[in-house]
Here is the input.
Amino acid sequence: MVDSSLSIIVPAYNEQARLGASLCRILDYITDYIPSAELIVVDDGSLDSTMEVAEKVCAEFPRIQTKVLGYDKNRGKGYAVRKGLLKASGDIALFTDADLSTPISELPKLVEPIENRAYHVTFGSRALDRTLIETHQPWQREQGGRVINLMIRKMTGLPFSDTQCGFKAFDMKKFRPLLDVMTINRFGFDVEFLFVAKYRGLRLKEIPVRWNNVEGSKVSAVRDTRRMFNELRQIRRNTKRGVYDKKPEPQRLTK
Ligand SMILES: Nc1nc2c(ncn2[C@@H]2O[C@H](COP(=O)(O)OP(=O)(O)O)[C@@H](O)[C@H]2O)c(=O)[nH]1
Ligand SMILES: [Mg+2]
Here is the structure.
């Protein structure tokens, strides 16, 4: 049982096929285990009926606080997650991928260390205990992931084995102000979140979680690896220019 108020954020891009079942599972989990949780779905400019699916499922759980946010143009998972976190009212916020590759029942592993005040940011990892991976990604994608993690370590100096798992939790009192200096909109945002949190003295913990590859990934190996490389360079540039030293100014993600 989780006692703190909690916000669960689900970024979703063209997820009409996978989202409905996932949201039901999350809302059932909230009903059973988390008395004070809200669910926030952020539709990242989807071209399909992601928004309608989210609204329909949320309406089936009227006793749970839900928000479905969205905007017209696709801006990337990083933007969508920031948008959700900025609207979160919980003391602790957790985001999860729309395909629930990490089952929602893994939530206490991340939330309890924050509730106990041991850590400020906790994040799921597929690299620390690979026996927890039940269904693997295709071989090529898995090797690609390894190369990307190596590149991330080299370029940022972060000591973690897997920064990219879509299951992360935050002590919002500590993390909320940092959102105002974040700049990365696509898949490099995970790295920026961890990099800035560490840089600003928060306590971080990488935690092994169960994980299943789910069909229907929209990641493109070539396009998204190139973007990731550029985003890592942006993080280095930002660090040099003192962007992450800035006293945060309230950031408003309007459109
Ligand atoms: N690919 C992609 N996913 C996005 C975007 N914006 C939000 N997401 C969400 O990011 C999460 C991870 O996407 P997925 O395609 O499952 O990535 P993978 O599991 O790493 O291959 C899902 O919840 C997506 O709906 C975007 O612009 N592109
Ligand atoms: Mg996925």
About this structure: Residues 11-13, 15, 44, 74, 76-77, 80, 97-99, 101, 166, 217-219 surround guanosine-5'-diphosphate (ligand 1) (CB under 6 Å). DSSP finds eight helices and nine strands in the chain. The first strand starts at residue 6 and ends at 12.
